[in-house]
Amino acid sequence: MLSKNILIVVFFIIRIQCEALNYSFVIRSVVGDPDGYSRLVIIVYDAKNAIPKWDRQRPFPAPLIRARNGEILEIQFTNMLRDQSTSIHFHGLHMLNNPWMDGVEMITQCPIHIGETFTYRFNLTQSGTFWYHSHSHQQYADGLIGPIIIDPKLGEQDPILERYPYDNDSDYSIML
């Protein structure tokens, strides 16, 4: 009976360590005119949506990624750009014990070629506001940028909320 209980505990610990918060995005070139002139721009949308939701004048930024410190984040990107490879860098996030997830093309990873999918998987070890963007070509200027918010671990107080309390229900993410 004791060995059965130990096996159950070990299985539970392994299950906790393996579960990840999952996102799945598609990167695509479309015609847009965010600055008043029509040209190809890049949109990123949730792969679960068959039709991307975006505004022709304001297709940026890419969707918000929100997680909690201590979680494992798994983000899948499918490159459907017309003529470019890509990679995604998670700006400011520590890639402890897995630097190959840092997303710098031809330095820490191979590019994600057209039609291919790559899954980034890493542990979150800090809280704060960050951003993700392409390190390929000038894709971040064409729209391949998005916000990341990493909330404190459950049970930990947010230091900003301690000093400047506000209503979380009216929380908005703005990228300038």
TrEMBL record:
The keyword Signal applies. Residues 1-20 form the signal peptide. The keyword RNA-binding does not apply. Pfam families: Cu-oxidase_3. PROSITE patterns: MULTICOPPER_OXIDASE1. Coiled coil: none annotated. Keywords: Copper, Metal-binding, Oxidoreductase, Signal. Residues 59-153 form the Plastocyanin-like domain. SUPFAM superfamilies: Cupredoxins (SSF49503). GO terms for molecular function: copper ion binding; oxidoreductase activity. PANTHER family: FI03373P-RELATED, MULTI-COPPER OXIDASE. Belongs to the multicopper oxidase family. This is Plastocyanin-like domain-containing protein. It comes from Rotaria magnacalcarata.
